[in-house]
Amino acid sequence: MSEILHNGSATGLPRQVADAYVDDLVALDPITGTYLGVAASSGSLPDLSPAGRAAAAELSRTTLARLDAAERLPGADSDAERRCARLLRERLNAELAVHEADEDLRAVSNIHSPVHSVREVFTLTPAETEEDWSAIAERLRAVPQALAGYRESLQLGLDRGLYGGPRPTATMIGQLASWAGRDDAASSFFDSFAAAGPASLRAELDEAAAGATAALSALHDWMVAVYAPAVEGRPDTVGRERYARWSRYFNGTDLDLDEAYAYGWAEYHRLLAEMKAEAAKILPGAGPWEALRHLDEHGTHIEGVDEVRAWLQGIMDEAIENLDGTHFELAERVRRVESRIAPPGGAAAPYYTSPSEDFSRPGRTWLPTMGQTRFPVYDLVSTWYHEGVPGHHLQLAQWTHVADQLSRYQAGVGLVSANAEGWALYAERLMDELGYLKDAEQRLGYLDCQMMRAARVIVDIGMHLELEIPADSPFHPGETWTVELAQEFFGLHSGRPADFIESELTRYLSMPGQAIGYKLGERAWLLGRENARAARGDSFDLKAWHMAALSQGSLGLDDLVDELSKL
Fold it and tell me: Which top-rank group of organisms is this from (predicted)?
């Protein structure tokens, strides 16, 4: 298929164009290949230099030209082809807008940067056989060149006056030190990872891991000596123009940011009233966050890292058993999901990784422990409905399951963040609607998670656009948002510990427009469900709607509401 498309003499329908794009992308980006489960990707890493990013952008432009031709062919107007074309065009244009603004040249973050991708991909690389580990050794040997390319991109950014934020820079420097084993004389990430390999490859793996660790150390030292001084005193916020560009990238639509900001405040006031009512059930006379602090000490806890991993697995297993056949129809391979503990040294937020295309690697949830061994459960229940079942796992594993009906692009590459995060937040609300939050403790934790997502909309838009705090706010009414006010607000309206709040705010500064997609995405899913229910009346079947919605692949928020309303 790719050869036909490459020679310029013919093209296919949009889904063929999309899948040919995936083939070509995997050749440029083996990290994407590993996420998809492409075995041939295991031994290499992408070119993270400006030249590598330019090659990826050129592939996007070429693909858009092929898509223009594909959409003129007979059959291109079918629902399946139309949805795929809609997503492919929107995603590639959003990615090109980011690239053409040279955002690649200042990609510094505590959670979402090329160096984070290089590290995380090792946790997903197959590591069962000696052949697997031989490929891992090859990938380890590719780390120095990959990080050198990333450094070249950052240096070009400095040369052009394009700076990453000082706060994400400082955080990433600390992460690099941790991953290189320099913060407390511990083993490096790569040394620890390679230690699990077979004895037959011990010398090769150790040598390759040492080279990868040395590359981490070299990047750390350059960031300390060159990058951090250059960005010192620069703003962490991005302003309206850059924010709108990134918001399009993460949400798949051009949002009315002022309307979204007002919606965030409306949700804040609604949720605050509900939280006060639940808090009174736990600690009469106490406010929501006083009640949550009480639960930190006196609420239900899980003791032990292994124990909390098993407990989280149990939450997902129970949800699958109870929901399959009643509110969802799950294929056997979608029913499999694993709970894992995240490697140390990353951000504080839990996350999910999708299954490989053949499901040989299952979907997995990951809990960063942040050094803790005692875990309050009040927020973990709804969080695992979000990360696992019926949240990210059911959606992303279902996409993979129906990839042959969609396209590889729709199922595994063209993800719109707000679509996925919106579904996961909808999943939390669904479990509340179905009565799975069994007591005031769990329900207050759920509402705290919802409040965090409303607060994200408020502070993410507010601080980056320097908006005014409304007059009816109980917090600094009439003042203009700053990073410092955002951190104070978030701390006052969250049950999370200080290190989590610090990590979250740094994430918002380095991923502008992403954090708002949870609440705005949930709103899109709820509106789509409401429209479909209104259109079908008494014949509306929630289980059938869920499965149809989860089987249509990714879409931006405007397209999502349109498609959901028709189901």
Answer: Bacteria
Distance CA 18, CA 13 (A): 9
Q: What is the mean pLDDT of the chain?
A: 95
Band of residue 359 on the pLDDT scale cut at 50, 70, 90? very high
Tell whether the model's pLDDT for residue 347 goes beyond 60: yes
Asked if the structure places residue 198 within a domain, the reply is yes
Per-residue pLDDT at 10: 42
Q: How many helices and strands in the chain, by DSSP H and E?
A: 25, 5
CA distance 539 to 487: 47
Average pLDDT of span 57-61: 98
Structure tokens at 306: 């292994």
Region at 208 (left for phi over 0; alpha for psi -120 to 50; beta for the rest): alpha
389: left (phi over 0), alpha (psi -120 to 50) or beta: beta
In 3D space, the residue among 30, 242, 29, 52 whose CA is nearest the CA of residue 152 turns out to be 52
Examine residue 478 and state whether it is found in any structural domain, yes or no. yes
Query: Has this prediction a pTM greater than 0.85?
Result: yes
Banded model confidence at residue 494, pLDDT cuts 50, 70, 90: confident
Rg, Å, the chain Cα set: 23
Residue 352: beta bridge partners? Answer: 365
Query: With left for phi above 0 and alpha for psi between -120 and 50, is residue 252 left, alpha or beta?
Result: left
265 vs 273: CA distance, rounded Å = 13
The structure tokens listed for 459 are 């502070």
Structural domain boundaries enclosing 139 = 2-235
Domain boundary among 235, 268, 283: 235
Do 190 and 68 lie in one domain? The reply is: yes
Q: Are 140 and 197 in a shared domain?
A: yes
* Distance of alpha carbon 82 from alpha carbon 331, whole angstroms: 26
Query: Quick one: 508 and 426 in the same domain?
Result: yes
Is residue 497 reached through a cis peptide bond, with omega within 30 degrees of 0 on the bond before it? no
DSSP letter at 523 equals H
Q: Do 187 and 41 lie in a common domain?
A: yes
- Whole-number Å distance between alpha carbons of 181 and 372: 20
The DSSP bridge partners found for residue 303 are 374
φ/ψ (deg, to 5) at 339:
-95, 130
Record the tokens describing residue 484, joined without a space.
Answer: 């410092």
Tally of domains within the chain: 2
| Residue 73, C-beta contacts closer than 8 angstroms, at least 6 positions apart | 11, 12, 13
- SS3 state at 495: coil
Q: What does the DSSP assignment read for 200-247?
A: GGHHHHHHHHHHHHHHHHHHHHHIIIIIHHHHTT--SS-HHHHHHHHH
Alpha-helix runs per DSSP H in 252-304: 257-282, 288-298
